[in-house]
Amino acid sequence: MPKNKKPAGGRAAKNFEPRYAAKTSYQDRKRRPGESSAGKAGSKSPNHRGYRAEQAESAPKRRWSAQEKAGRDEARAIRSQDRARRDDRGRYEDRPRRDDRARYEDRPRRDDRPRQDERRYEDRARRDDRPRRDERPRYEDRPRRDDRGRYEDRPRRDDRPRQDERRYEDRARRDDRPRRDERPRYEDRPRRDDRGRYEDRARRDERPRRDDRPRRGDGPSRADWTAKPGATRAHDEHVDVVHERLQARAIQADEVSGTTFADLGLGQNIVRTLADMGAETPFPIQAATVGPILDGADVLARGRTGSGKTIAFGAPLVESILRAQAGKKREFGRAPRALILAPTRELALQIDRTIQPIARSVGLFTTQIYGGVPQARQVGALKKGVDIVIGTPGRIEDLHEQGKLDLSEIRVAVLDEADHMCELGFLEPVQRILRLTEDGSQKLLFSATLDREVAALVDEFLVEPAVYEVAGEDQDSGTIDHRVLVIDHRQKPDILTSLVDREGKTLVFARTRAYAEMLSEQFEDAGVPALALHGDLNQAKRTRNLEKLTSGKVRVLVATDVAARGIHVDDIDLVVQADAPDEYKTYLHRSGRTGRAGRAGTVVTLVTRQRRRRMAELLDRAEIDAPFEDAAVGDDVLEELSGRQVDPTAG
DNA sequence: AAAAAAC
């Protein structure tokens, strides 16, 4: 394949230069240890091979000590290893041809120059011809570090706002920047007043309070949880902060039934590709958001897990970019026009798998930009030019800082799992990235759990955003059967093994990487093939293990919350939470790995007696009804949940 | 507190 040859040739060509440069290090070999490190303060400990007594610094030239010889031999050994390694790089064929070199006869005669190993120190340029060692500025006399521009004296950082401290208020005023009017105005759309506008959302106090609704048990009220956002309990326990829900314009499912993707404004090629992917007619969330996105509005959308959010933003995004590019040539090395940010690499990869075919159907290119894999391919794609970048914040910032990713022409930016992207650790990189996009770029925020947590981004980046959701589509109305097993802690391993020993695909969630790893090994040992998915694995393994679950080569995957959000595997029919989640949102996302696109699924959460109440509170916040039942090893409930036949004669 | 996210 010429494709393979090209990079190889390129590498060889590149190596050509450094090999000549390598001569320098060959010359280095003539140096003796004493000189090469002249002036440097040797090791202070007498037993160290680099040890040089203080007075050696100024002492007259003398013979090599045994110690120095040993040091020299060792240095030689290291250098010859280096040489061997060098040889591994440049291929023999690529090295300078023999004919290019001076012919043997023409080279200095053997006798004219000492052989490498015979060359003696004395044969080198005479001391007198060179600056004498003692005449050279001594290390001590060289400009002191302190004499150079001191860090403190350099232009103060404080003179300009630090990147992460730069506040929205300090930025160019909106009015000073290109007007948003260049985009199709959202106002021109019909039914504008029907929208739940962000600004108009019902104020907290005006809405029915959550505690007015039927509650399970007597846990702290929602008001208690939200009264002081971020407040901590007496001990260092994590607090499941419940953010105010955004009021949305609820799309009635029947309101959009009968609508087609074409009706929504998508072009023929895209519609056909969607159909090929199995999306014949739009899901409600898609019917709700495609129009506004095509109109250029900033959109917040909440759609139940597995409700088709990726297409809801992906298809109109491709259509928008296509329209904006209309009539323009596809330039080599063009800057990307759309950016999709995701919280995990797996999710970024998966989004690309959905969007790439849609984009390609109209001649647009996508690329994944995420960490854990070599940059070269990603940079190569960017050099050729892509239209849509899909990735995770770290690598995107990295490539931007390296000048390899130009974000200045991004006109549509999407945050998938937007509320998660607003959490500690994600928010700031996301803000920095969004600030790099084109002024007035369209922002789309999607999540199954979209709440006021995204306020930090909404207030800075979104203009008159509308919130959409599908009426009656909260998590509890879905196709998922929620169960809580109250167990004895000591039986947990056996109960887990019993649950996962089944036919269907099972996703097990563990709180830590170590426990996820441990559980997968435990299942293996018990004869249930299982793999792990967590951040301690290299990306190749992560990708492979998830793929093995998708393809069915393994039916049990034990994961940390890296797999909690967005990951779509068609037919996971059981989710087991080996550790109960800390946050109601985590519960919703984890459980959303099953019951995708209307399928049935079961979520089993294991809790100990002590955690019972906390779990009840969490489920209350998640607005999920789940029966609690005691379970022990061998109980029928384990058989039932795992889908194994319960023996009717067993009583 | 853990997990994720860059080399």
Automatic annotation (TrEMBL):
Residues 491-639 form the Helicase C-terminal domain. SMART domains: DEXDc, HELICc. Keywords: ATP-binding, Helicase, Hydrolase, Nucleotide-binding. It comes from the Bacteria. Residues 65-221 have a biased composition (Basic and acidic residues). One of its GO terms (cellular component) is cytosol. Residues 1-238 are annotated as: Disordered. Residues 290-468 form the Helicase ATP-binding domain. The keyword Aminoacyl-tRNA synthetase does not apply. Residues 36-45 have a biased composition (Low complexity). A motif (Q motif) lies at residues 259-287. Transmembrane segments: none annotated. GO terms for molecular function: ATP binding; hydrolase activity; nucleic acid binding; RNA helicase activity. Belongs to the DEAD box helicase family. This is Superfamily II DNA/RNA helicase. It comes from Microbacterium thalassium.
